[in-house]
Amino acid sequence: MAHIQVPEGVPGIRSLVMYRPDTGKPLYELAGALLRGDSTLSEAERELIATYVSRLNSCLFCMSSHAAAARYLFKDEKGIVDVVLEDYESAPISAKLKSLLSIAGSVQQDARTVTPEIVAKARSLGATDREIHDTVLIAATFCMFNRYVDGLASFTPTDPKAYEEMGKRMVEKGYVLPTPQTGI
Amino acid sequence: MPHINLPEGLPGIRGLMAYSPGTAKALNALAEVLLREENSLSRSERELIATYVSSQNDCLYCQSVHGAVASFYLEDDGKLIDQVKKDYQQAPVSDKMKALLSIAGSVQKGGKEVTPEQIEDARNMGATDKEIHDTVLIAAAFCMFNRYVDGLATWAPSDPQLYRERSATLAQIGYAGSNPYK
């Protein structure tokens, strides 16, 4: 049960932003800008970074929902998501994305462990300043979302089917603030 | 030196806000609601939570700015801020604040660290659901801001006076209205 009185039966962050829409609005705008805004990183790649960081933070709700969004975006290659969650080094993704995931992992652990060397490596594999910036901010943002969702013990569905639908909605509709009427 | 090419001379998050105005808008809007808008927790109490979490994350820039803003509101010379960072249990803050700082400290370690007992304790000291919600979100948000600022190795000035000057500006105009260049 959640630590505070949030709408019942509504999972994860949706229950929290329905409880407090004033903070929900900038949170959803941030997610929208980072994960759906114009970028040279694909939406699938950005969802993958979000999923990976959520897994490192052991946030089952964020990991499962963003993994579902990434699977939906990767279409026929959706198996990539599970390989990345297992061991991204062996996943069939670009060397550049692997170097960005390594930066994201350092941000999750302790931001000061992002060394000039791992940044230089990403750059040598073709990452731009903007891509490095966005990777750090996506990783940092999910260190917030994960703590918000778990810190208030929000409802985490266990049925994979529930996440599949969430992932589809997150891709087709984007990050749209739920209203009390259409919350679920 | 920052890991990416940022506008020169702007410390901490200001360089990042100038570099990425699109994300800065949402980040500043979040800080504005959490730290400044109408709330049963005072502005200084909320800045204190932000400062404490930034200190736990060892983020020099964020703990200096928000510590200075809290001091500005409290008309404190910085002594209280240092006490809270060092050992808030011994600091002259309310029992409710101590309970909320304990929740914030758990959030800093990881969301799952927050126990029903800590929540119960805060509630017994008079904390409302909204105050508990805001404490968790302020703590979580600073786990983001701190990582953003340090993960890109931004510049943190060492002169406390610079933070005092900035805090007066922030206390006056707030986060949503702030301009990274001014």
TrEMBL record, chain A:
Report domain Carboxymuconolactone decarboxylase-like positions: 21-71
Keywords noted in UniProt:
Oxidoreductase, Peroxidase
GO terms, molecular function? peroxidase activity
InterPro entries named among the record's database cross-references = AhpD-like, AhpD_core, CMD-like, Uncharacterised_peroxidase-rel
Claim: Oxidoreductase is one of the keywords in the record: yes
Where does the source fall among the domains of life?
Bacteria
NCBIfam families xref list:
ahpD_dom (TIGR00778), peroxid_rel (TIGR01926)
Protein known as: Peroxidase-related enzyme
Q: Which organism is it from?
A: Rhodocytophaga aerolata
From TrEMBL, chain B:
GO molecular function terms listed in the Swiss-Prot or TrEMBL record: peroxidase activity
Q: What is this protein called?
A: Peroxidase-related enzyme
Q: Where is the Carboxymuconolactone decarboxylase-like domain?
A: 21-70, 90-153
- Source organism (scientific name): Rhodocytophaga aerolata
Q: Which domain of life is it from?
A: Bacteria
The UniProt keyword set, sorted, is: Oxidoreductase, Peroxidase
| Gene3D superfamilies in the cross-refs | AhpD-like (1.20.1290.10)
Cited InterPro entries: AhpD-like, AhpD_core, CMD-like, Uncharacterised_peroxidase-rel
Signal sequence span is none
Tell me one Pfam family matched here: CMD
